[in-house]
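Most newcomers find our protein records easier to grasp once they have seen one. To make this concrete, we reproduce a full record directly below:

…
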Amino acid sequence: MAHSTWHEYLNLASFFASVAGLYLLLNQKKAQTQQEENEVADQVLFSMAFAYWIVHCIAVGAQKWVCPDWTTCMLSLKWTAVISYLLTFSCALSLPLHRIASTQQPVE
């Protein structure tokens, strides 16, 4: 097996950071019982971003362990990594846009 590159170490570190972030976010959610609708939407967007990034890290890491001759499996892992990356990006982009939209809504 070849030596790991800096990208693989960064992928592993971001995986553990995402797991820790998701754990902290879910434990914080249990502690607070009364929340506004905007705060719930922010927490859902954060948790989706963490979960999609965990899937991305697993898919990228699994590509190193799967035999390259298994073309169907490798193609599936590559597509999973791409789609989860795009979903993470869309959640990260939606969070500030949601906050801007929620501040511009009139309070009833």
Q: What stands out?
A: Residues 8 and 61 are 8 Å apart (CA to CA).
